[in-house]
Amino acid sequence: MNRTHDFPPVSLPFLPGNSLVDPTKKRFHLSQSLVYDKGYALKNQPQFKIGGGKVELSKIEPAEIQCLDKEFASLQFILLKESYFVKFSDVGRCEDPGFIPAHVALDKKVLHFKGYFTEEIIDSPVESERVRYLDIFYYLVDDSVAMSEPQQENSGITQGKFLTRQRLPLGQGDRLLSWKNLNTAMDLIVYSKKVRLYWCDAFTREWLTSEGIEVNSNEASPGDRYIVSRNQPERNYVSPSEVDSLHKFLTLDRVVLRFYATWDERDQLYGEVRKVIFETQSRFVI
What we know:
- This protein is an alpha+beta fold.
- It has helices at about 60-75, 100-105, 200-210, 225-230, 245-250, and strands at about 35, 40-45, 80, 85, 110-120, 130-140, 145-150, 160-165, 185-190, 195-200, 255-265, 275-280.
- It is about 15% helix and about 30% strand.
- The strands form 4 sheets. A 6-stranded antiparallel sheet has the order 8-7-6-5-10-9, covered by helices on one side. Strands 1-2 form a two-stranded antiparallel ribbon.
- It is found in: Cytoplasm, Cytoskeleton, Cilium axoneme.
């Protein structure tokens, strides 16, 4: 007769020579402890040990959960506000949406402004100052600013990237530019240059308004005197000619002189009388 005895497990002290290798354990990879939820890294509690076996966690028993549910249902919070009673059963309707990190909610959201600044021109007989236009882009995800100057044909000056994407200091202190400091019809100091913001797009106006900022109306951009003068046609002073070729061309166009004649060659051998027509037409080159 075989008899089995249940002996309590006995662990050996952790001393040299007492470490035993369990041959049944073959999986020694680490359990995943980090997960991504809506683009945000969250910590996850591992459920399995290294080498196998579950991790013992302190969990709430089902009886405790039922007890908490009963206490939770018995509680009722009533808030009196503007003659409206908000009960605890209505709180679920007013719950905030799931947490979305800022780098996900504000990704690819850019505020677009247009501005200009004037620079003094020395020793020029044509202009005393020049107006240079800028496109200002404010990236909400990291509060950085980038500026570029639109290309202008035959301008003769270096245009394109004006300010690389960076955090812009505000004044002489340690403060940095924020979207709360931006609006149309205002002056913005960019490294000792005064840039006038005169325009913003529809998305920028709508987003700033949703954040409680009263956006000013767009302003008209000033014209550059030199560019305006270049767009005007040049005046050519030409002395009148005694012979008006254009008038002759318009009045004598398709006017042909035709003459009828005879060519008598009867005094020659085998000669005869021929009828010919002469036509003359004046041609003018303008």
